[in-house]
Amino acid sequence: MPIFLENVTVTYDRHPAVHHLSAVIAEGSLVALVGPNGAGKSTLLNALMGLEKVSEGKILGIEREGVAYLPQQALINKEIPISVQELVFSGLWKAVGISRSMTPEHKEYCAQAIDSVGLSGFEKRQISTLSGGQLQRALFARVLVQDCSTILLDEPFNAVDTETTRDLTEVILTWHAQKRTVVIVSHDLPYVREICPTSLLLARECIAYGATHWVLSNENLKKARRMVEAVDQQAPICKRVKAA
Ligand SMILES: Nc1ncnc2c1ncn2[C@@H]1O[C@H](COP(=O)(O)OP(=O)(O)OP(=O)(O)O)[C@@H](O)[C@H]1O
Question: Which parts of the sequence belong to the ABC transporter domain (predicted)?
Answer without folding.
Answer: 3-229
